[in-house]
Amino acid sequence: MKLTVLGAGALALVAGALVGGAAANAEPLTEPLRPPNCSAADLAGIASGVAAATSAYLFTHPELNDFFTSLHGRPHDEVPESTRAYFDIHPQEHAELRGIRQPLVDFRNRCGYSAPGSFEGQPS
Question: Lowest CB count within 10 Å: 71, 83, 109, 121, which one?
């Protein structure tokens, strides 16, 4: 019985040494490096600038502000078509909002982030 316990202990020791040696020689898992200015802080700064500009734009365009406010509480499946229809009638506002959001698009493209889900027809 003593031999079996010793044999099992020796086997565990050898297995541990092999696993430990393999782990020591393994390549460390690293994330690919992001380009400069692609940190969470950079994103927060850009997003806050876009949010402030959007707020100012909506306050100076009350009809658009009222339209977006009216979307609250509507069924989600109605929002994309309503938004598309509004911007079909108001292409200048659509283009201007797209311009305001462009810094976020540029950040996502430069830093390799995918675009968040958005409703079709809304400015991207």
Answer: 109
